[in-house]
Amino acid sequence: MKVVTGAAGFIGSCMVGKLNAEGIENIAIVDDFSKTDRQNNWIHKKYALKIDREDFIGWFKDNAKQVDGVFHMGARSHTTEFDWNIFLKFNINYSKAIWKICAQYDIPLIYASSAATYGNGELGYDDSLASIPNLQPLNPYGRSKQEFDLWQLSQENKPKFWAGLKFFNVYGPNEYHKQRMASVILHAFEQIKEKGKVGLFKSYKDGYEDGKQLRDFVYVKDLLEVMYFLMTKQPQSDIYNVGTGQARSFYDLATNTFGAMNKQPNIEFIPMPEDIRDKYQYFTQAKIDKLRKVGYNKTFYSLEAGVKDYVQNYLINNLYY
Q1: Do 300 and 244 form a contact (C-beta atoms < 8 A)?
Q2: Over the stretch 104-147, which tens digit does the pLDDT of each residue have?
Q3: Helix, coil or strand: residue 136
Q4: Among 49, 86, 213, 262, which is least packed, fewest CB within 10 Å?
């Protein structure tokens, strides 16, 4: 049996869909399923068990011998959340409990770290283990992911295979519920529908024009391929960047969203909220050499192809993956 935590959320629900597409239905899905705004993410998926996240650790301790792989995607992912106790509970202690059970029973584990651990990027975006202790995240979310990475690397007892994945800027279907934390593509699509224009943040850093801040935008379908590859092949256990390796601007993203909707670009530049100005990343770009070296050779979606697929095959008709 496979386990997917965060199965009602964005990446987790898509992972359940990927497993279903591969013919796998013996899945335990784990999350807080009381949130009705996420119901369409999971209600039509095929699975064996649905477990509330508060009950999962107890269930896992009692049923670990049934499990042959865990995709731990569940987390508090709000980068604007500043209550450390929430991150301590869901992103650190919960993950430690899962790790310990996987280590005890030799269960392969793939878990979500984050590119937020890289902070402002002054140390680069190298996923070598030697660089990890030096990273300085800019917000509590990034810090929580960093602390778990450091904790697990210090453990003598490890699962038979494990992979921590530093996802870069992920976009794609099943993120409708994320509101402020949804991808800029979803926000752009909704703004174009409602107002016929898109607002991009002004720049507050020398060397970057308004809207020309750069991100490594990665389509969620690529994440699913990477995770399925790692769980199936179980190469070197490690922490891996998951991004395209090519930074693109928000301006490019917006113009491609207009194009996918068959509309002419209409972009305005708006002030960045003050609560994120000093924590804002102006450039991210994944170094993915390590992932390539262990045999992952699939081509990532370009921004153009990913935006087109997302807009035309999901957003326009409000469809789910």
Answers
A1: yes
A2: 999 999 999 999 999 888 899 999 999 999 999 988 899 999 99
A3: coil
A4: 262
- Please give the biggest Cα pair distance in the chain: 57
Q: Which residues of 99-126 are buried (b: 16+ CB within 10 A; e: fewer)?
A: bbbbbebebbbbbbbbbbbbbbbeeebb
On average, the pLDDT of the chain sits at 94
Neighbours of 159 (CB within 10 A): 25
Query: Tokens standing for 268?
Result: 């305005």
Pairing of strands 217-219, 267-270: unpaired
Q: What token pair was written down for 118?
A: 């890289």
Q: Give per-residue pLDDT as tens, 42-59.
A: 999 999 999 999 999 999
What totals of helices (H) and strands (E) does the chain contain, helices first? 12, 13
Q: Please return the burial class of 154, using the count of CB atoms within 10 Å of its CB with bins 0-12, 13-18 and 19+.
A: exposed
Instruction: Provide the whole-model pTM.
Output: 0.94
Residue 191 pLDDT greater than 70, yes or no: yes
Q: Which residues contact 173 (CB under 8 A, 6 or more apart)?
A: 14, 220, 310, 314, 315, 319, 320, 321
pLDDT of residue 179: 85
